[in-house]
């Protein structure tokens, strides 16, 4: 770990005022501290923001608002989240371990870095960590890597389960900087790697995620998060699906679909949603719609199984909501 | 994880005597020691797999805060080759890099953080060469080791009149040939390798967990060119070893040499990443098995060839055939062979059931495939080929109840309800299947000396330099000492993990309990004799002047025929002596007329999702024939741990390297082992038939057999569930997706 300056902020204004170009905000620390030990992240300044008043879960007619410092475990167990947005609760419970969920913040979850092993190994080339150094994964071990949104520079997946659920629900993030607040839809917040994989999102230097806003969606009560992985718990997704279904009688009136573990960012699938809408809620419909999920997928020799797995994940998730 | 209770009648089931200290933080592990003036060391490891180091820039590191010294191949520490299992690579001795993550430097600083930060400032300039990492690609260059287990690399057993194994296979009514692969693995003990080293007056004290304090002391004495008696090694608590703490790896050697040079104690603790690359691993294997059989399933010829990936400069093999097909089934013709392929990967060493773990995967899958081919129940096929004598040596087994393992297991597991057709059973969206496998592990004994001391406070000390790897050796000392002396366990004071104690050898080969337990019995007898001798010879003793043959020891008390009867502490008090002690030794003195092994049967049930193909094990059972069960509780834990590891090998574990030789998952986030949610109800049942031909205790080993056969049982169950035969470990869902 490199030496760094550490301070604790009392208020949001205080935190923003102290932040410089090379500042990292410390919330739960479950990603930051880990990556600082590995010298993958080497901020000159770390500002502890845990005292900031950004811990709350509020539900109302306009939807759900979650403070960025709220802990994952608290949101996962929140009765109204469980009842009205089971996909969020399930995505959180499928993440990490209970100990990590007790520490890790909601905002930090959205900003967690990829689990690509080459990104975490400072002796390896990695365009995301060190722009222009190359990508060791493309010719290396990449079984878990992305097939959607990849580029010749980077094939790393975005690791968050929560973000997949939120993108499916059209959530936004509230951001604040010394220039003031702004709201960005989460789907636009994340960037595809292109030739600049080091730029993962729209956050500006010193800017802080303050709140997550999920619009009201009554039929999100019929939603689920299915995560497929190499062990039952404490492992990242090979493929995951966040699915909400609006069923009217025997047919699908609306659908929200996003997938994880397969994209360089949480991946919304409007083509699948469209293929489901207005069709009978049957296995045949689900299988046909899931075919649309693989449009544009680009596989590597080690992850050729992913398109099949994504289709199957979607069908299984849809069947669990109703057929 | 639920653990059904099934206590056999005679077994003791004692809590771990060290359990409370361990779970309350009272047990001081090696790295918990911090002597005065302590400095901290941190290893620098290579970032390429095959190269010569042209230069290293240490200037920034040397200037970094707190740094005391930076050692590299250009400024090495004096160390000689040494090693109980053969010399390990001497760190910093040359500029050659043969694998990624090889130690190439050692920074010592005032704090751990300073040492680590400074280590990150060191850069190395390499003349890099292409790395060889593929076992498959290296097959044409495979080499035969000079020997396997002290015998030849190829062993052939042929019936009279048969010219070769190939001739026997050609003559078979049915043959089955298949190739199996297993992944490179790391022991990943919970406690990483560490050392705390301090010199005083030319003598070294090292706190470090190992599989034998005496072995560690000898390794270091040779490496540092000092007398064996000038090194004291201590490691009373070991946070897991599994074969990975036999050898003395770079961190301990570097810390001891740096401590001598700097005149200060040095502590070093490997990072998890360093444990993966700078200690050792289990080699990856490729195995070809050909079975020849009659239509009734009787084996007529077995050929089993194993290739292992070996680190450059090492000839370590996982002799899968030697450790399974050579002795498991009654085939008149058998040939096993072992070769290695030199690769730019971390060193290989012993890991739990070396040879048996990968070997049983290949053989027991092949047996399952043969059963399918012949339409014979897989369990029935094993029964038909039961070996009543060791097919290799021709000797009878000292005690073998494997058929009872099969039958008891089948009954407890409900094997008779198994569907005949693979892929024909489901529970909703989950395909279900069951599989089984045989487990065999040779019963070994090693020389050991233990000491028993009667003490004036009424306790008896049972001590020796042996190690408790988490296996329950502390408790074995207590239980066997208690039994041998007729004293309650609370009056037994066990001590181990110190090279200054009686030389009890190392712990491994599942021989710890059999070797150490036998030595305790011998020491207890000798100590009783010494006690009686003192009692009759000391003038203030109530037994003074009596014929020693007329005095007997029983349950802590001396009694003379028609004379006095006193507790031993009373006798000691009368004589004014603080204690009386004796050593006792046990050597492998079992008759050479028999073959010795522990036996078992493994059963498992899996569920495979119809859509996404995740495999989850839902039930496991082992029935074990390991002779006397000395302490059922710790014996059960040993078998459970082995079974969970077998599940892990089957479905999770594998250390993967890319074509440049860079490890892709050398940490516990990327190197998967099962979590509790992957670990089902596990049932362990012991037969508990004493094997008194093996030793007076009647106990054979149970340390390693728990893992043997498990991966095959899982793979066989996956086949039964899905109809798909996967021959490459670990079995992951992508191998099953259509």
Automatic annotation (TrEMBL), chain A:
<dbReference type="Pfam" id="PF03450">
    <property type="entry name" value="CO_deh_flav_C"/>
</dbReference>
<dbReference type="InterPro" id="IPR016166">
    <property type="entry name" value="FAD-bd_PCMH"/>
</dbReference>
<feature type="domain" description="FAD-binding PCMH-type">
    <location>
        <begin position="1"/>
        <end position="219"/>
    </location>
</feature>
<dbReference type="InterPro" id="IPR036683">
    <property type="entry name" value="CO_DH_flav_C_dom_sf"/>
</dbReference>
<protein>
    <submittedName>
        <fullName>Xanthine dehydrogenase family protein subunit M</fullName>
    </submittedName>
</protein>
<keyword id="KW-0560">Oxidoreductase</keyword>
<dbReference type="InterPro" id="IPR036318">
    <property type="entry name" value="FAD-bd_PCMH-like_sf"/>
</dbReference>
<dbReference type="InterPro" id="IPR051312">
    <property type="entry name" value="Diverse_Substr_Oxidored"/>
</dbReference>
<dbReference type="InterPro" id="IPR005107">
    <property type="entry name" value="CO_DH_flav_C"/>
</dbReference>
<dbReference type="InterPro" id="IPR016167">
    <property type="entry name" value="FAD-bd_PCMH_sub1"/>
</dbReference>
<dbReference type="InterPro" id="IPR016169">
    <property type="entry name" value="FAD-bd_PCMH_sub2"/>
</dbReference>
<dbReference type="Pfam" id="PF00941">
    <property type="entry name" value="FAD_binding_5"/>
</dbReference>
<dbReference type="InterPro" id="IPR002346">
    <property type="entry name" value="Mopterin_DH_FAD-bd"/>
</dbReference>
């Amino acid at each position: 770990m490199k030496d760094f300056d550490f301070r604790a902020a009392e208020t949001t204004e205080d935190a923003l005022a102290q932040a410089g170009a090379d500042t990292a905000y410390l919330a739960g620390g479950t990603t930051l501290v880990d990556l600082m030990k590995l010298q993958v992240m080497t901020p000159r300044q770390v500002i502890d923001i845990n005292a900031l008043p950004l811990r709350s879960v509020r539900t109302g007619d306009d939807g759900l608002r979650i403070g960025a410092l709220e802990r994952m475990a608290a949101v996962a167990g929140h009765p109204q989240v469980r009842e009205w947005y089971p996909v969020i609760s399930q995505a959180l419970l499928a993440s990490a371990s209970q100990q990590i969920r007790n520490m890790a913040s909601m905002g930090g979850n959205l900003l967690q870095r990829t689990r690509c092993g080459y990104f975490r190994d400072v002796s390896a080339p990695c365009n995301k960590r060190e722009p222009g150094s190359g990508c060791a994964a493309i010719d290396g071990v990449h079984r878990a890597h992305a097939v959607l949104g990849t580029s010749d520079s980077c094939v790393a997946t975005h690791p968050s389960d929560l973000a997949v659920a939120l993108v499916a629900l059209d959530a936004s993030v509230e951001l604040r900087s010394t220039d003031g607040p702004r709201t960005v839809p989460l789907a636009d917040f994340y960037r595809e790697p292109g030739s600049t994989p080091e730029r993962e999102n729209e956050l500006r230097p010193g800017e802080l995620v303050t709140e997550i806003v999920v619009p009201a969606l009554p039929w999100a009560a019929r939603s689920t998060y299915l995560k497929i992985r190499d062990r039952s718990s404490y492992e990242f997704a090979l493929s995951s699906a966040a699915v909400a279904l609006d069923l009217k009688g025997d047919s699908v009136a609306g659908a929200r679909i996003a997938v994880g573990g397969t994209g360089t960012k949480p991946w919304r699938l409007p083509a699948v949603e469209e293929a489901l809408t207005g069709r009978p809620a049957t296995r045949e419909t689900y299988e046909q719609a899931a075919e649309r999920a693989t449009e544009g997928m680009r596989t590597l020799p080690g992850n050729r199984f992913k398109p099949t797995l994504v289709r199957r994940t979607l069908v299984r998730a849809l069947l669990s909501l109703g057929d | 994880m639920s653990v059904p209770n099934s206590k056999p009648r005679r077994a003791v089931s004692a809590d771990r005597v060290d359990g409370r200290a361990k779970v309350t933080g009272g047990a001081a592990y090696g790295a918990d020691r911090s002597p005065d003036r302590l400095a901290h060391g941190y290893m620098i490891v290579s970032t390429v797999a095959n190269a010569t180091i042209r230069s290293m820039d240490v200037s920034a590191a040397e200037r970094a805060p707190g740094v005391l010294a930076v050692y590299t191949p250009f400024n090495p520490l004096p160390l000689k080759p040494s090693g109980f299992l053969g010399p390990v690579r001497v760190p910093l001795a040359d500029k050659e890099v043969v694998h990624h993550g090889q130690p190439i430097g050692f920074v010592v600083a005032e704090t751990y953080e300073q040492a680590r930060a400074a280590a990150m400032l060191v850069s190395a300039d390499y003349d890099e060469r292409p790395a060889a990492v593929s076992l498959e690609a290296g097959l044409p260059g495979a080499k035969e080791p000079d020997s396997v287990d002290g015998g030849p690399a190829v062993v052939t057993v042929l019936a009279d009149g048969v010219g070769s194994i190939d001739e026997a296979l050609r003559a078979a009514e049915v043959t089955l040939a298949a190739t199996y692969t297993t992944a490179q693995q790391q022991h990943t003990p919970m406690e990483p390798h560490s050392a705390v080293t301090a010199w005083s007056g030319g003598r070294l004290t090292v706190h470090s967990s190992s599989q034998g304090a005496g072995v560690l002391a000898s390794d270091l004495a040779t490496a540092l060119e000092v007398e064996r008696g000038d090194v004291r090694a201590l490691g009373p608590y070991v946070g897991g070893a599994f074969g990975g703490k036999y050898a003395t790896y770079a961190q301990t050697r570097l810390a001891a040499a740096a401590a001598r040079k700097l005149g200060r104690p040095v502590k070093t603790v490997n990072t998890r990443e360093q444990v993966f690359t700078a200690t050792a691993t289990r080699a990856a294997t490729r195995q070809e098995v050909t079975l020849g059989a009659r239509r009734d399933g009787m084996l007529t010829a077995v050929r089993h060839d194993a290739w292992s990936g070996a680190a450059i400069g090492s000839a370590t093999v996982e002799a899968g055939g030697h450790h399974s097909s050579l002795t498991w089934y009654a085939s008149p013709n058998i040939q096993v062979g072992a070769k290695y392929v030199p690769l730019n990967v971390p060193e290989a060493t012993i890991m739990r059931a070396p040879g048996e773990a990968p070997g049983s995967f290949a053989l027991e899958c092949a047996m399952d495939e043969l059963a399918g081919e012949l339409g014979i129940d897989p369990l029935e096929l094993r029964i038909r080929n039961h070996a009543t004598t060791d097919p290799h040596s021709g000797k009878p087994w000292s005690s073998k109840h494997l058929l009872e393992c099969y039958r008891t297991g089948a009954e407890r597991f409900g094997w008779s309800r198994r569907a005949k057709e693979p892929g024909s059973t489901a529970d909703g969206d989950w395909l279900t299947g069951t599989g089984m496998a045989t487990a065999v592990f040779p019963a070994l004994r090693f020389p050991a000396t233990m000491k028993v001391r009667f003490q004036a406070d009424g306790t008896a000390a049972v001590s020796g330099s042996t190690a408790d790897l988490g296996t329950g050796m502390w408790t074995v000392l207590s239980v066997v000492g208690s039994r041998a002396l007729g004293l309650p366990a609370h009056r037994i004071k066990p001590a181990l993990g110190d090279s200054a104690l009686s030389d009890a050898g190392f712990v491994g080969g599942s021989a710890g309990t059999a070797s150490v337990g036998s030595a305790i019995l011998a020491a207890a007898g000798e100590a009783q004799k010494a006690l009686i001798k003192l009692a009759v010879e000391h003038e203030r003793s109530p037994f003074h002047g009596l014929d020693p043959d007329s005095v007997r020891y029983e349950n802590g008390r001396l009694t003379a025929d028609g004379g006095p009867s006193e507790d031993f502490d009373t006798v000691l008090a009368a004589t004014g002596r603080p204690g009386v002690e004796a050593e006792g030794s046990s050597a492998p003195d079992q008759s050479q007329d028999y073959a010795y092994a522990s036996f078992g049967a493994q059963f498992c049930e899996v569920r495979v999702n119809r859509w996404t193909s995740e495999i989850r094990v839902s039930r496991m059972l082992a029935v074990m024939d390991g002779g006397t069960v000395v302490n059922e509780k710790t014996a059960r834990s040993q078998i459970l741990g082995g079974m969970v590891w077998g599940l892990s090998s089957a479905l999770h574990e594998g250390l993967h390297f890319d074509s440049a030789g860079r490890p892709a998952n050398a940490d516990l986030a990327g190197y998967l082992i099962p979590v509790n949610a992957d670990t089902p109800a596990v049932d362990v049942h012991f037969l508990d038939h004493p094997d008194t031909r093996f030793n007076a205790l009647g106990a054979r080993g149970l340390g390693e057999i728990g893992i043997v056969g498990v991966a095959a049982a899982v793979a066989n169950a996956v086949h039964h569930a899905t109809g798909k035969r996967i021959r490459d470990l670990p079995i992951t869902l992508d191998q099953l997706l259509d």
